[in-house]
Design brief:
By secondary structure, the protein is an alpha/beta fold. The protein contains eleven helices and twelve strands. Strands 3-2-1-4-5-6-10 form a seven-stranded parallel sheet, sandwiched between helices. It has a three-stranded mixed sheet with strand order 7-9-11. Helix 3 packs parallel to helix 4 and helix 8 packs antiparallel against helix 9. The longest helix has 22 residues.
């Protein structure tokens, strides 16, 4: 396999590059000019400069590749420039897949999100067939990824050999930004979380998520989507695990949703004026209203997708954040 990986400097993408190399694949990693490339340090991959919004650079990068993993995305719960997020996630996906179609790529794996899927929200696990509509999407990230997934699906009718994967909430090392979930871990370790808003998340080790991408390329059925997730956990349970790992007491106060929602609206109003990220992202508070539980049964049955526990990747994340100076 000779694979092109977009988003190769990011959290999932950098682990995907590593797992592909472990499997003996030849990897070409796409990186934007001036991007933070720490996650590719010491990795035996060919790094090429390009941008998913620049089709000429994509056409050059994809030459001689037989497999494409499109893992690039703008993942934030708040942005002062939503248009840029839609451009990266929607237009960027169209550019990448248009390039793959023109190049005659043999297999394409597109990294979507469980955020685009139906979710009962009451503790029942959603799956690939749970009904969903655009009106269910909360925040610009989910809206843009929903539209991007529809864009990806439109290429199936044009003959693109596409498989979609929907990761849940990956955790582990190399979360350099960090992601919103990584920020929760950093805030916990920095003792900046005296209270919390209860919700439910599905955690997956980022390394296992990356391996799921490779299984999708090898065994995934064209036109199908596969949830890559593992354990459904309440946030309070995640904090108890982090407490066990770190020795830091878990927050004891669970806040009611309505006052936090009001505070989030006020924060967003202030951020609209200052341009600074809100302390309480409105999209995050609105998402927390639902338990974001999902089932990976389809990926396990069709791909042979395997996972361990959520405790181990949380432990690796804690060690990585501590070692790399993220705690204040």
């Amino acid at each position: 396999m000779k694979a092109l990986v977009t988003g190769a400097t990011g959290f999932i993408g950098s682990h995907l590059v590593r797992e592909l190399i472990k499997n003996g694949a030849s990897v070409r990693a796409l990186a934007r000019k001036g991007s933070d490339r720490r996650n590719l340090a010491g990795v035996d991959a060919e790094t090429v400069e390009g941008d998913i919004l620049d089709r000429a650079s994509l056409a050059s990068a994809i030459k001689s590749c037989d497999t494409l993993f499109h893992a690039a995305a703008d993942y934030r719960l708040w942005t002062k420039n939503p248009a840029a997020m839609y451009a990266a996630n929607v237009d960027g996906t169209e550019n990448v897949l248009e390039t793959a179609l023109a190049a005659g790529i043999g297999k394409v794996v597109y990294t979507s999100s469980v955020g685009t899927l139906g979710n009962p929200g009451d503790g029942t696990s959603g799956d690939e067939e749970t009904p969903v509509a655009f009106s269910d999407m909360v925040g610009d990230y989910k809206k843009s990824k929903f539209l991007a997934e529809r864009t990806a699906e439109s290429f199936l009718g044009r003959g693109l050999p596409l498989v979609i994967v929907n990761p849940s909430t990956p955790v582990g090392p190399l979360d350099i930004k960090p992601t919103p979930t990584g920020k929760i871990i950093v805030d916990f370790l920095s003792r900046r979380m005296p209270a919390y808003l209860e919700t439910g998340l599905n955690l997956i080790a980022v390394e296992e998520c990356a391996r799921g991408h490779i299984l999708a390329a090898e065994k995934g059925r064209i036109g199908e989507k596969y949830i890559l997730g593992n354990e459904n956990l309440m946030l309070a349970d995640i904090f108890e695990m982090l407490s066990s790992i770190s020795g830091i007491p878990a927050p004891r106060f669970c806040l009611p949703h309505t006052p936090v929602l009001i505070a989030a609206y006020l924060n967003e109003a202030i951020s609209a004026v200052t341009g600074r990220e809100p302390l309480i992202p409105l999209a995050g508070v609105r998402m927390a209203k639902k338990l974001m539980f999902f089932s990976s049964k389809k990926a396990r049955m069709e791909l042979g997708f395997e996972t361990t526990t959520a405790y181990d990747p949380l432990q690796r994340a804690v060690e990585w954040f501590r070692t790399n100076g993220y705690l204040k």
